[in-house]
Amino acid sequence: MTEIGPAPRHPGWRERWLALRNRLVASPGFQRWAAGFPLTRRIAQRNTRALFDLCAGFVYAQVLFACVRLDLFGLLRAGPLGPEAIAHRLGLSPERGLTLLRAATSLGLIARLPDGRFALADLGAALIGNPSIALMIEHHAMLYADLADPVALLRGEAGATRLAGYWPYADAGNAGSIHPESVAAYSRLMAASQALIADDVLDALPLAGRTCLMDVGGGEGVFLTHAARRHPDLALRLLDLPPVAERAAARFAAEGIGDRVTCFGQTFLDGPLPTGADAISLVRVIHDHDDAAALAILRAVHAALPPGGLVVIAEPMAGTGGAEPVGDAYFGFYLLAMGSGRPRRVEELAGMLAQAGFAAIREKSTRRPLLARLIVAVR
Ligand SMILES: C[S@@+](CC[C@H](N)C(=O)[O-])C[C@H]1O[C@@H](n2cnc3c(N)ncnc32)[C@H](O)[C@@H]1O
């Protein structure tokens, strides 16, 4: 019989220590002892809580979803209200209303005042300030439906997913023939959420001395609208699928900057990109595409830039310190359900930029790396 796989090797000290530790932690007797022993009690309690939170994560998300769907935060915007009044306004019985209010309080979304009324807490107030987060939460209904059987999804046996329908360009072969109705929902969501990151990206973007910025996969043009305000002398171009580019042109006209921006309605997966810009941005674009397509986009950007031209990748990335589950767990499974792309680490993106011919590749720090990190490089 032929054995498949690498030859057996002797485990190093780290592997042996991990094996010993895991055997101990897995033992019910040790768990009970650790939960009572003063030096390990806090660690044991923290681990129990962390494990419980992982089990309950879906429930917490559904509590949030119910608050958003019922517009609880909008209701409390004007000030605190008593539980009966809230239940009545949400169309719930007093008991069910209280179930929701207690759950939302425990999650830090709202707070119970000493007189028994409920008010917005930090997280609920933050949601009021960023309406795009509520849109994000609402569209997660599709993600949760797609994740109902994560093993089938991982094995490629889940069939057509809802997110693949929501993001029709995820089927790359389809990209050139997408109808205006099928881009409306995702374009609205992207336009609303772009407001969260545009200024962070522009703060970090070295545009001094550049004359023309082309935003590739620029959506409805919110990023370029912010760029136009900051850089009055910069010529601007947007490239996206034809029905999305039309939506962008309408926005630029409504914002009074229609004469400053040229819109190109075409796919970036097929044929060369327009030349003439000395800076090209890819904001939340590369993570949507599998490796071969992502590299093809970077090569097309390289070919469209003059020598010395600047490319910018801005998106949430895997391995972001303090936000590891956002990249690898959330975006990893989101993009899996969507059927295209993956979150990449800074080093992976830097490697792809080098493969596409770029030099002087470096990361520029952003205010909220969880939402968008930024890598720049020069042709
Ligand atoms: C996740 S959205 C990001 C939009 C925008 N950059 C933002 O951050 O709000 C990705 C964008 O890439 C565009 N896109 C996807 N595939 C494309 C293709 N093959 N050619 C041109 N644009 C494409 C989509 O229409 C969409 O507007």
From TrEMBL:
A Gene Ontology biological process noted in the UniProt record is:
methylation
**Source species:** Methylorubrum podarium
User: Which residue ranges does the record assign to the O-methyltransferase dimerisation domain?
Assistant: 53-127
Lineage of origin? Bacteria, Pseudomonadati, Pseudomonadota, Alphaproteobacteria, Hyphomicrobiales
Molecular functions per Gene Ontology: methyltransferase activity
**According to the UniProt entry, where is the signal peptide?**
none
Q: Which Gene3D superfamilies does its entry note?
A: Vaccinia Virus protein VP39 (3.40.50.150), Winged helix-like DNA-binding domain superfamily/Winged helix DNA-binding domain (1.10.10.10)
The UniProt entry, under Pfam families, shows: Dimerisation, Methyltransf_2
What is the name attached to this protein's record?
Methyltransferase
Q: Does the keyword Transferase apply?
A: yes
Instruction: Keywords in alphabetical order, please.
Output: Methyltransferase, S-adenosyl-L-methionine, Transferase
Task: Name the domain of life this protein comes from.
Answer: Bacteria
Q: Does the keyword Methyltransferase apply?
A: yes
Positions of the O-methyltransferase C-terminal domain:
144-359
Instruction: Identify the InterPro entries for this entry.
Output: COMT-like, COMT_C, COMT_dimerisation, SAM-dependent_MTases_sf, WH-like_DNA-bd_sf, WH_DNA-bd_sf
